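Throughout this chapter, every protein is written as a compact record of paired, labelled lines. An example of such a record is reproduced below:
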Amino acid sequence: MSLIDHQDGLLVYDYARFARAKDFAFRMWCELAKERSLLPPEDLSGACKYGSQFVRQVFGGVIEGHFEHQYNRIDGRLIDLGHDARDVGRMRQPYQHEATYFDIPEQQARLQACMPRVMRWTEAFMRELGQG
């Protein structure tokens, strides 16, 4: 099973749901920081592996990106939970797509390692929306 190829989502993407998903992902990102005894994050900087997989589970589409950042494409539209994160703002080309990057075994392992948490986030988000 590919962790980046097209997948149908649980919900149809729209701006209101995206805003709720972004708020939810930030709360979960803060919880993860607390679990790791890190300072609370200011934004979703560094969360793109989790965020893009979360969006793919919830809204479907594919994951695109490169060594610095990954994001989603749903029905041809670029979707990025971290679009306004500080790290994304500092990148010269945050939305460059290097498909072969996702073929690197270490990257596949990093994505796979995120999946149990992403699935818990997805289930909790759907419950929060009254859909699960």
About this structure: Residues 9 and 56 are 6 Å apart (CA to CA).
